Amino acid sequence: MSGALIRPDATLPGIGGAVAEIPLTHPGNRRWWIAFAGAAALLGLFALTLGYLLYAGPGIWANNNAVVWALDIASYDWWIGVASGSLLVSAILLLLGAEWRGAVNRIAETLALLATAAAGLYPIIHLGRPWFFFWNLPYPNTYNLWPQFRSPLLWDAIDIVSFLVICVSLWFIGLLPDLATLRDRAHVEALRQFDVKAPTRKLARLRAQVYGILASGWRGSAAHWQIWVQAYRTVALLGVLLVVSVQTGASVMLAGSLMPGWHSTLLPVSFLVNAVYSGVGVTAVIVMLIRLVYGLDALVTDRHLDVLGRLLLCLGCASAYCYAAEYFDTFLNGDAEGRGVLVRRMTGDHALVSWTAILCLGLPAQILWSARARTAPLAIATVGLLVAIGAYADHVMVLVVTLTQDFLPSSRLPYTTDIWGIATFAGSIGLFLTLLLLFLRYLPAVSIVESRRLALTVSPAAQEAARMAASRATGRPEENPVTAPLWGVSATFASQGDLAAALQAVSGISPDQVHLDGHGPVPMPRTLRPLGLEGRSILPYALAGALLGGFGFFAMCVYATAYDYVFLIGGRPRLSWPSFVVPSVSFAMMAGCVAIHLALLVLNRLPRLNHPAFNIPGFLRASEDRFFLSAEARGDRFDAARIERRLASLPAEAGRPLEIRRIPR
Amino acid sequence: MAQLFTPGADALYRLALMTGVACLVGVPVLAAGIVRSNYVTGVGVAPAQPLPFSHKHHSGELGIQCRYCHTTVDREATAGIPPTHTCMTCHSQIWTGSEMLKPVRDSYAQDKPLEWKRLNKLPQYVYYNHSVHVTKGIGCSTCHGDVTSMQMTYRANAFEMQFCLDCHRAPEKYVRTPDQVWNMTWKPPADQATLGPKLVAQYHIRGGERLTECGICHR
C-alpha cells in the first residue's frame, strides 16, 4: 500500500477545525440546498405513497396471491443488508484497532443507522393494517394471546428493534466526544460574538447549548475516556454478533418455507456476504461523495480508497464464489425443482433482474485488481453503486422467481412490478438521503477523535513541535489569590505525557483530601495508573445485561409456548427451543447495549451540563489540544499551595505545567 | 471560563430525561388502562332503553324463566329478543293503562318492533352459538352476569378475546350440571375440581387444543 493515512503535518486543532467547520459554517451551502431539495422531493413522494397505501392497502404494489413478497420485502432486505454491511465494516475496523478508521467509521455508522430507519418502516407498512404493528410484540393484551415465538415474523420484529438500538448506540457513543468538540468550538464562537456584540450572538449561544445538551456534559476526563473506549468496542462486538444473527435469521426465514430454491445450506453465508458487500458498496459511494463535496482529501486519503477497494474486491470474490457454489451444487446434485428455479432465473420472465444481479455483483469489483483503479475515487464509487444495484436485483431475484412458481400449478401467477412499488422504494431513498444530508450539515462527518488518535501515533513530530511551541510561549505559574470558595487546583499541559508525569507527582496525596482527574481531547491510557483507575471495566455490566436479557427472553418464549399458550402449529413440539434462540440472541444484544449505555452514564456521573471544571480558564481547549489536571478539594485538609509547589517543581521536559490556577467553586 | 449552562440546567435536563423514561413506561400503561376501562368496554353502563324494562323485577322477583322471552337460546345461534307479542301476553291484562308501558302498546298497535339498545355485541368475525353453550352446561350468568339482580340491564363482562379464551382453555372450571344452567347465582361447587372433568367428558367437550383452534370462533 502506498501513500499516508494522514498528512504528516496534521495537528489536533487542525483536524478538529477541518471537520467541525462543516457543521458550524456550512461550506458549500448552495450545493447542499440543491441536494436537500431533491431529497425532500423524494421524501414528499414517500409521504404521498404511504398516504395512498394507507388508503388503498398493499394491493397497490401489484403483489398477488402467489407473489406475496415482492419489492416490499426485497427493499426491506436490501436496506437491512446495507445497514448490516455498514455496521459490520465500522465494528470490525474498531475491534481490529485499525488506526485509520476515523475517516470511514463515522460515515459507516451513520449509514447503518439511517438504512435501519428506512428498513424499519417496511415491516410496518407492508402489513395489511399497519396501525396494528404492535401485535407482533409480546405485550399484555386483551386477547390473552402471545405472539408466535416460533415464527420468523416475530424474529424480524425483535431483530429490527435490536438493530435500531445497537445502531443508535454505536453511532451516539462514537459521536459523544465529537459533540463536545463541536460544543466547545460553538461556545468559542458565541463568546467571540458576545465580545463584538454581533447581532447573531444569541443564536450562536443557543447552537452551542444544543450541542452541549447532545454531548451530555462530556468533559473528556480520563475516567470518561476509559469507559468510552470500552463501551465503544463492546457495543461494536454486540453489533457484529447481531449482524450475523439478523442475516442468518433472514435466510432461515426463507428456508422455513417449502418453496424451491431457498434451501441451499450456503444461503446464510451468501446472505451475509452479499449484505456486507452492498453495505461496503454504499459506504464507498457516500464516502467518495462527501470527500468530493467537502474537500476532505486530507482526512480521507488515497490509502483509505485503497483499503475500501481491497475490501470490495475481497467481498466481490466471496460473492462470486457463493453464486458459483449455488449453481454448481444445485446442477450437480440438486432436485428437479431447485434446478428449475435456477433455469427460470436465467431464462424466465425476470431474467433481466437475475442477470443484473449476477453481472453487477460479480464483475465490476474485478477491475479493483488494478492498483490505479483502487485509488481512483470515480472507480470506487462506480463499483460501489453497481454493487448496490446488483444486491437489490439479487433480493428481487431470490424472492420473486421462486414465488411465481411453486409446486402447485394452480397457484402460479406471473408478477410484474407496479409503479407504486417503485415509488415506495424511491421514497425510502428520499427518507435516507434527507436524514443523511441533515447529518452532514449539523454533525461531524469524519470522526475527530479517531483522526486525532491517528495523528498522535502517525505523526508524533508535528505534535512534539506544537508542544514545544506551547512550552516556549508560557512563563512561570502565576499567583492568583481566589477569594471565592475554592473548588480545586488546575494545571494545563501540552501533552498527555506531561499530564501523566504531573499526575504521578501528586498521586501520593490521600484521596480524603483531593480527587484527581485528567482531561484531554483523546483517550489517555497513560494517566490511568497514577489516577488508580486501572482495571476498571465495563464488561461485567455488558455481560450481565446481555445474559439477563437473553435468558429472560428465552425463558419468556419457553413459558409462553410450552406452558401458558400451548398452541400446536405445524407439528412443532411445545418446546421448540431452536426457534427461540434467534430472537433471544437479538434481544440479548439489545439488553447488553442498553446496560452499556447506562453504565457509561452512571459510572461517569453524566449527564452533567454545568460542572466546576468548566470554570478552568481555557478549558474549552480540553477538546482541542490541551491536557488539564484537576485536583478537586475534598474535606478541610486540602492544601492548594502544596499541590501547586509540587507541580511547579517538576522539570520542564517532564511534566511542568504551562499554567497553574486556583478554581472557584 | 464562562459556563455554557447554569447550575439549574442540570436539574432540568435530568428531569427531562426522567420524564422521558417515565413516559416510555407510563404512556403504554395509561393506554392499556384506558382500553380496559369501563368507559371503553361499556361494562356496568346501563344505557337508556325505549322503556325502562327491569330484568330484576320480571325475572328475579316474579320468577319468569329466561326462556319465556329468549325462546331460541337452547336451539339456535341467537338467544332471541322477544317480540312485542311476548310482552303483551301479560300486559294486555295487567298495567294496561300504565304510562310507562305506552311504547309497548304503541308498538303492538302500529305493528312496529321496539328498538332495544343492544348491549352484548360480538364482532362480525366471531362465530358464536348460544345453543351449544347452553346445552353443554354453560350457564347464562357465566357471560351475562346475574341478570336477575339488574334493575336496568347492563353489560356484565367486556367480551374481549381473553374472556372467551379463559373458558375455552379450561372448560372444566365453568361447566355446570344441566339443572344449574339457568341458575343466576351459581358459584362453582366445592367439588368442581372432580365434577368438572366428569361433566366435560359427559358433554363430549373437547377442551384445550380443540376449543382453542382459531377456526372454532373465527370461521
* Main beta-sheet annotation of chain B: none
Structural class of chain B: mainly alpha
Distance between the termini of chain B: 74 Å
Can you tell me the overall shape of chain B? extended
Q: What order do the SSEs of chain B take from the amino end to the carboxyl end, as H and E?
A: HHHHHHHHHHH
Overall strand count of chain B: 0
**Average pLDDT of chain B, to the nearest integer?**
92
Oligomer: heterodimer
Q: What's a concise summary of this model?
A:
The complex is a heterodimer of chains A (665) and B (219). Chain A has 665 residues and is mostly helical.
Question: Can you put this structure into words, describing what you see?
Answer:
The complex is a heterodimer of chains A (665) and B (219). The mean pLDDT of chain A is 87. Chain A contains 21 helices and four strands. With 665 residues, chain A is mainly alpha-helical. A four-stranded antiparallel sheet of chain A has the order 2-3-1-4. Chain A has helices spanning 12-25, 29-56, 71-96, 102-125, 152-196, 201-214, 222-255, 267-294, 302-333, 336-347, 351-362, 371-374, 377-404, 419-442, 448-458, 460-473, 496-506, 528-531, 539-564, 577-603, 640-648; strands spanning 486-493, 514-519, 627-633, 659-664. With 219 residues, chain B is an all-alpha fold. Chain B has helices spanning 7-36, 38-41, 55-61, 66-69, 84-91, 102-110, 130-135, 140-144, 161-169, 192-202, 214-217. Chain B is extended and about 95 Å long. The interface between A and B is medium-sized, with 30 and 25 residues.
Itemize the secondary structure elements and their pairings:
The complex is a heterodimer of chains A (665) and B (219).
Chain A: H1 12-25, H2 29-56, H3 71-96, H4 102-125, H5 152-196, H6 201-214, H7 222-255, H8 267-294, H9 302-333, H10 336-347, H11 351-362, H12 371-374, H13 377-404, H14 419-442, H15 448-458, H16 460-473, E1 486-493, H17 496-506, E2 514-519, H18 528-531, H19 539-564, H20 577-603, E3 627-633, H21 640-648, E4 659-664
Antiparallel strand pairs in A: 1-3, 1-4, 2-3
Chain B: H1 7-36, H2 38-41, H3 55-61, H4 66-69, H5 84-91, H6 102-110, H7 130-135, H8 140-144, H9 161-169, H10 192-202, H11 214-217
Helix pairs in contact in B: 5-6
